[in-house]
Design goal:
7-stranded mixed beta sheet, alpha/beta, 20 helices, 18 strands, 9-stranded mixed beta sheet
Length: 517
């Protein structure tokens, strides 16, 4: 395999920041020009703006949204009415992404094959556990994805093990490969995949790569995309960076790989070397993922097809859609292994599905509720759910990084520690390095694995994908991994918080801006 130059994580972070700076400056320049032009009519416009600001504030208060998120925007608008209102309309209001969402809905209508009818399966689930059936029913209602029999689901506690299986699946591809990732970066991982994909294209396999334009800013350029196209690999960017765009915040944070409708991969792992510990910018990179077969694969194929056809002029044909969403041509008889509901979050839905799912899981737990997350920026509802569960005597635990990748976000995350610890929540920091895993597990029976961080961006602004499992053997492997991670982590205590008064003061000030991070 060719030796490929690696890009440092620092450069990635700086690249993403730099990508936003021109947008901010242009917005500021437009506001400045408007202010200068309107200066002669200052008194008149000041009166108009005061009335509009009052109406706008009342609208924001009445709007159904996360409390802390609304409070921050109210503060911004109070301090700078005109710039604040413009900023909210462009970046804070979910309606700004409606055009993007409409494109996705329009594509959805043209997909000729529907997902499974789960009516009978839901009836069976209701007889087994009505509370769980209601949880699955809520997610189904909010996202449109069905409850399915889980045929096989293999859990991987580190990225390098998942990567091996991804390469194997690529080598075995016969008809098509769908890849959708937030970050793609040149290196050992990506280079290995491209080598195989180039050969597979020559064998007639249809390979498509979809990446997020801002997520991969500084790591995957137009030059990289053109290189793939020359090899016969179809490649598109999701939601391209446009200087003035209300959908700027609505990023595709999903991680999906589908091969031949026979197997799908998902989890927290992006296509970059730190995710498989080829690089160690923040110690050992702890990430997780899974490989799934059966009807659940169709749900991931459906997700990809929607976004690809909404992003590309080179649409996936009805014939390939039929192959992707029909019965698996490589279908094998396997034992029934519980239930699964793969779904994706959209920032333009009325309810934040994953946020409400976690509130529900915490409320129905009777023994324990454990979570993996790299960032801990909780809205009021989810924070209250953690506190209530712990105060009821539930064993609530959160595993966080021991070495942060973004220090400011890490400080914001720690601002939540004290209230959680006082309620009885146990917080562990993974001492070997950085935790990028995103998962939940409740009472040995129900849990989720996907791309959803416990922060505002994942829960309210990004497109994310998640898989909810019930009575699946994969959950036992997830529990074992939780226990092993806690064994090498340091448990935070209230005394730790009392010993860091100055840091906590800084953390609490930074926390004000958590909804914008």
């Amino acid at each position: 395999m060719k030796k490929i130059r690696k890009t440092s994580t620092t450069r990635i972070v700086i690249g993403r920041i730099v990508s936003i700076i021109p947008v901010i400056f242009l917005q500021g320049f437009i506001i400045f020009v408007l202010a200068k032009w309107l200066a002669p009519f200052a008194t008149f416009f000041y009166t108009i703006l005061s009335v509009l600001s009052t109406l706008f504030t009342l609208y924001l208060i009445a709007k159904k949204d996360e409390g802390a998120y609304k409070m921050l925007w109210l503060l911004v608008i109070f301090l700078a009415p005109l710039p604040g209102a413009f900023m909210y309309l462009f970046y804070g209001n979910k309606r700004t992404g409606k055009q993007l969402e409409q494109r996705i809905k329009d594509i959805n209508i043209t997909i000729p094959v529907q997902l499974n009818d789960d009516t009978e399966l839901m009836k069976t689930l209701e007889t087994e556990n009505k509370s769980v059936a209601q949880t699955f029913g809520y997610v189904k209602h909010m996202t449109g994805f069905p409850v399915l029999k889980n045929e096989t689901a293999q859990y991987y506690p580190v990225g390098e093990l998942l990567f091996e299986q991804m390469l194997t699946a690529l080598k075995e591809a016969k008809r098509y490969v769908f890849l959708e990732y937030f970050i793609i970066q040149e290196g050992v991982l990506w280079g290995s995949m491209v080598d195989i994909m180039e050969q597979k294209v020559k064998e007639g396999v249809d390979i498509r790569v979809l990446y997020d334009d801002i997520g991969s800013f500084g790591t995957f350029s137009t030059k990289n995309r053109i290189s793939l196209l020359k090899k016969g690999i179809k490649c598109e960017k999701f939601n391209p960076l446009i200087i003035i765009s209300g959908a700027l915040n609505n990023r595709d944070h999903r991680k999906i790989m589908v091969v031949d409708g026979a197997v799908a991969f998902s989890g927290g792992i992006n296509l970059a070397d730190e995710y498989i510990n080829e690089e160690h910018p923040f110690g050992h990179w702890k990430d997780i993922g899974f490989r799934i077969t059966g009807d659940a694969v169709k749900s991931y194929a459906y997700m990809f097809i929607e976004f690809w056809n909404a992003s590309s002029f080179n649409k996936i044909s009805k014939e390939l859609i039929g192959i992707s969403l029909g019965r698996n041509y490589l279908e094998r008889k396997v034992p029934f292994d519980g239930y699964v509901l793969p779904y994706y979050d959209s920032p333009n839905r009325e309810d934040a599905a994953s946020n409400n799912l976690y509130i529900d899981l915490l409320s129905q737990s009777t023994e324990y509720a454990w979570f993996y997350t790299p960032y801990l920026l909780l809205g009021d509802g989810l924070l209250d759910a953690f506190v209530r569960a712990a105060k009821k005597g539930i064993d609530v635990r959160i595993i966080m990084p021991g070495i942060p990748d973004k220090k400011v976000v890490y400080r914001m995350s720690r601002s939540y520690y004290r209230v959680l610890l006082e309620a009885g929540v146990k917080i562990y920091e993974y001492t070997p390095g950085f935790v990028h895993a995103k998962a939940s597990l409740v009472d040995d029976r129900i849990g989720s694995i996907g791309t959803v961080n416990l922060d505002y961006r994942s829960l309210y602004l990004h497109y994310e994908c998640n898989a909810l499992f019930y009575k699946a053997s994969l959950l036992e492997d997830l529990k074992n991994d939780f226990e092993e991670s806690m064994h090498v982590s340091r448990e935070r205590t209230l005394q730790d918080e009392k010993n860091e008064l100055v840091h906590n003061l800084i953390n609490n000030v930074l926390r004000i801006f958590a909804p914008l991070v």
